[in-house]
Fold Putative HTH-type transcriptional regulator YbfI.
Amino acid sequence: MDLQSQEHATSVDLSRGERAKFWREARHCDLECLTATFRTHRYAPHTHDTFVIGAIVSGQQQHKLKGSESIGGAGSVFMINPEEVHDGRPLEGGYSYRMLYPSVELMHEIARDLPGAAPSGSLFFQDLMVQDTALATHLLRLHAQLEQSLDPLEKDEAIYLALGEVIGRYGSWRKEPIVGRAPKAVRDMCDYMQAYFNQDVDLDQLCALSGMSKSYLVRVFAKHMGQTPHSFLTDVRVRQARAQLALGHEPADVAIDCGFYDQSHLNRHFKKRIGVAPGAYRNIA
């Protein structure tokens, strides 16, 4: 979410009492921050190229993580890895939460400086959600400091202490990230869709690239990536759209440039993944 610094952040009023506020802490690898209340909004299965770290303030959210359904409420902490597929749906009454989107670079920097750390490979979290009231309280306090404080030293300390605690308690290391652990044919398809996201892509092209049949290709891709090729390509297109919207480009132009058929097509997929419409996101950014 390529957004402004906190002092210029903007809140967006959504439907039926829903609100979302985004901002960016540019000094910390463009750390992106979100505080939101959702009553009816349902996130489509999607991924991020950053970590997703945060906690629920109130209410309950149901979601699928690693293929299993679970429910998070007050005291729940989310630690979702880059490229890890997840969704989210409010239960009755909705929920409020605060989320951070720290880059891989920032998380590795913090991990390397922890006492006794011997990092090797890529940082990841085996448990994507845990019930840890003390850590949730620490993360919510950090988030509030980032939202309210203008003191850079206070915010620096808060980020390193809170994210360091998350990594120290639950972080692990693996040799390769999710995409790197997939078979070469799947990696090649990912590379192809990232390179040609602004063009039409169909199964015939992916089959020619991978040497697989259509039905087998979809099953193998979903097995290793946690989502279908179409869902993966849509994620890539939405990320590209976010970057262009943050530069002030018009949603209608962004839609065509990023491989969507029109602005309506972009609106539908963007809101399902980001929580707000492209026009509202552009106004924030």
